[in-house]
Amino acid sequence: MLLTLMPLALSEAMTRLLYLAGGFLLVVLVVVGLIFVFSYGKLWLQAYMSNAPVSPFTLVFMSLRQVHARTIVEAKIMAQQAGVGTDPTTGINTRRLEAHYLAGGNVPRVIQAIVSAHRADIDLDFDRAAAIDLAGRDVLDAVRTSVSPKVIDCPDPEKSPRSTLSAVAKNGVELKIRARVTVRTNLKQLIGGATEDTIIARVGEGIITAIGSSMDHLNVMENPDRISKAVLERGLDAHTAFEIVSIDIADIDIGENIGARLQADQAEADTRKAQALAEKRRADAVAREQEMKAEVALNRAHVFLAEAEVPRAMADAFRKGNLDRIGSNGAA
């Protein structure tokens, strides 16, 4: 009897355990489902309704990878709604968006730049946009500048203490010029290309060189467009992140007559040199005069010495008796 009841008891116990395990598992699934709904349900539904579906497990794994899920999902939705999310050339998918986010990139700004470029019919894929963003450049501003060129003052009053460029024509007249350079971004050379400072420096150098090669400052003032054309022909935007659209001379003022001032300075220097030479010659003459006076005094001293020798010779002759002989010979 006991042997027949034992299997029944074991089966009932196993059944209860299975019911308990199933109930516990159901409770866990319900709790997990509620947590997912409260945490990711709205986001998942938004992506699904926007035709940019994201797997629920992907959303959970994003959190485990320390990725802000809302940023990735909203970026994907933006790309999908703009018509660039499904383009195979742009390669916009969840995994690549996560990789760019983990690399420290600005995902929303990259997507906005791609959308703006797509609207303006500019060739910009995700790889290039992400590379520009990771290089530290503002990719959205670059696209906007490529669509709407911006104007740069040369020289830049915010970075230079001078408000104008100073150049001297061959006739020596100084011209003070302020130029405005219209540029647009060259996306192909944005990575590794020179910045606005290089453009300003090259344009300033080109303007100064063009004016310096002009024979007369009046020619420059009559035809300032010749300076612009001469500067543009030099290809100043090579190896830069910009393409120069135009160079416009905004203002020209006449400065000092550098040539006349240099000539006056040279004449004054020549005068001082001549005065110095004259002073030197006068000093040489005075020194020569003093030398001649010294020579005269020396000769006089020699004469005095010679005169002093005469009495001495006479005394010697008298002592030796030669003086009487000289007198007798003279009398005879």
Automatic annotation (TrEMBL):
GO cellular component terms attached to this protein's record: membrane raft; plasma membrane
Keywords, ordered alphabetically: Cell membrane, Membrane, Transmembrane, Transmembrane helix
Classification via Pfam families: FloA
InterPro entries (alphabetical): FloA (IPR022853)
Mode of membrane association: Single-pass membrane protein
Chief place of localization: membrane
Transmembrane segments: 20-40
Source organism superkingdom: Bacteria
Subunit structure: Homooligomerizes.
Family, as annotated: Belongs to the flotillin-like FloA family.
UniProt-listed NCBIfam families: PRK13665.1
Function: Found in functional membrane microdomains (FMM) that may be equivalent to eukaryotic membrane rafts FMMs are highly dynamic and increase in number as cells age. Flotillins are thought to be important factors in membrane fluidity.
Protein name in UniProt: Flotillin-like protein FloA
Name of the coding gene: floA
